[in-house]
Every structure is written in C-alpha cells, then in structure tokens.
Amino acid sequence: MSSLDIWMRENPLAYVWLGSYAVALLVFAVEIAMVRHKRKITLQQVRLMQEAEKDQEDEGTA
Amino acid sequence: MAINWFKYSAPTTFYGLAGKMVPWFAATAAVLLAAGLYLGFFVAPVDAQQGEFYRIIFIHVPTSILSMFLYLVMAGYAALGLIFNTRLSAMMATAVAPTGALFAFISLWTGALWGKPMWGAWWVWDARLTSELILLFLYLGFIALHASIDDPRRADKAAALLAIVGSVNVPIIYFSVKWWNTLHQGSTFKFSGTSMHIVMQQALLLMLLACWAYAFAVVLSRVRSIILERERHTTWIAELPEVRQ
Prior knowledge:
heterodimer, A: mainly alpha, 94% helix, 0% strand, rod-shaped, B: mainly alpha, Four Helix Bundle (Hemerythrin (Met), subunit A)
C-alpha cells in the first residue's frame, strides 16, 4: 500500500475536498477569469479598430 | 401576449438579452452551489458501503450529465447553423464547446479520484470511462478544428459536421453501463426510482442545477465576446455604450 493510499483512507474528507471539489472550483475560477479576460481584450480590439476607422475617415475628409 | 422568439435569434438583440441574463444565472449558480455543498457535506449521511468517499458523487454526477447535455446543445446549435445558415447558432456552438470540455474533464478527474479508493485503480478501460474520454476528445477536436480555419463561416461548417457526427457518442455513454458489462455502476437516477437517501438526492439536484446555471452564465458571457468579435464591422457594435466609452 502506497503512502497516498494510507493517507486517503485516514483522511477521506480531505481527499474528497482537495482532490475533487478544490480542483473543480479551481477549474471554474480559471474559466471565469478566461471569459472575463477575453471580453476585456475583445472590447479593446473593437475600440482600437473603431478609432482607426475614424482616423482614416478624418484623414480622407481633410 | 405573443413573444416573438425569432427576434432573439439575431446577434443584435441576443447580445443585450444575454448581458441581462448573465448576472442572474451567475448569482443563481453561486447560491445553489453553496446550498448543494452544505447539504452534501454537512447534512447528507455517510454511505454505509463507501464511507465519506461517496461525497464525490455531488460533483461527479452533475458534471458528467452536463458534459453530455452540453454536447447535445452544441451539436443542436451546430446543426441549426449548418441547415439554416444562422449566425448566432454557430456562435453559440463555439461558445458551448470550452465549457463542455471542462465539464468532461472534471467528470473524468473526479471519476478517477473516486475509482482509486473504490476499485483500487485511477483508470480502467471500461466502456463508460472510455466513451466519456472520447467525448472530451470530441470537444477538443471541435475547438481545435474551429481554431485552425481562418474564415469563421468555413470553420463553423467544418466544426458543425464534427459535432453532429460526434453526437452519436452521447447515447453510447449513457447506455454503456447497460450494453456492456462494466465496472462503473449503473445510472444513479432511473425512471423506476432511486434507492438514495432523500438528502443525498436533494444535494445532487442542487449541485446539478448549480452546474447548469454556471454553464449558462459562462456560455452567455462567452458568446457576447464572440458576437463582439464577429460583428465588429457593423454599426450597431460601434454604437454600443461599452465600445463608445
């Protein structure tokens, strides 16, 4: 029996919490962070593109 | 009062609607998750055979169900996009894929952690486990194929075909425990009822609803970014307050 086997049988709740729930919550947190980051980056790109288009229009009229 | 549902199939109107729904789904998910975890860990009794290890069920079963359900949702949207050439359907399919892949990953991960104390092995090439692993690969294949094609409309079509063909795997996952002699236990919920303790059922249901609300919040939030990205040359995007500021 490995030391991990012994530890998990002595601390089943810690094994369940750290192994399953903590990992799952971490995955959810990373996904939320990625979605928020993607939103921020996309908004920045769209704003930059709009500004560039506006500058081009201004140069064209000048 | 008749509601014109087709109105919300256009990115223009759906963008605002999704923005309004995200906080509600996120708050619902947080409340249900807290309630589900409380019931699952502090109220539900210890299992007579599996001891405390069975508590993995409250994350393993909801994520497994969601991984299959989201694949069908993704394939459904992909099929709609392919047949009717609707822009939003393809965007929704693209937005669902990463969340579905993460649910499939968590399902496999928690399954391995449950398998070790119960079966003595992290992994066995059992029909249920193998078909769930194939589901994860199908999600990853969809994401990779979509990302590898520059033209979004062509990428939508190619990835849609993969999603539709891959949907045959979902009933295989569900019925695998009936069709083959597997190490994995049978369905937790059956039409004939369940032998689970009532508090265990309530905790499981709350966690399932929490995962469902979370998936909705994240997918709707992601599809808003996809709409912004794909419709960036349109005037309605230029007039959005968040773009103009």
